[in-house]
Predict the 3D structure of the following.
Amino acid sequence: MALHHDTAISITSLHRVIQDPGLSLKMLHKAASERDEVAQEEFRTYVWEHLVAEQVVTADDIVAAISVEGYVGTQVVLGSVDGDDFFEFIVEDVLPQMNPFPQDRSVLILDNCAIHKSAALCEVIEAKGCILLFLP
């Protein structure tokens, strides 16, 4: 009320306004959670459409590298990401932005997904002078 009508009302008046149409606290919580779910879905749709629109393709998967400053690179992949797609992404999009250790952007941290653990990928990263770490 205060925001929409620029009028302050007492707690008692607010309680009466809510109860008069038969609203309960449970009903208000449910409506708020449904609104939050809709907002979250709208956000997911917005992000997906903008990432895919940048690549001008319909995608099934997105690969991204993130640093403390933000995104280092993103790539949209048709279908599921496989070892070759991931290798290409790291070599073409991520490694050019990395530096030899101990400079900034010199450590690449990956989870323990099988496609991340190729010997060729490890060699390329280490040849650049970077350090490769895997999460447990």
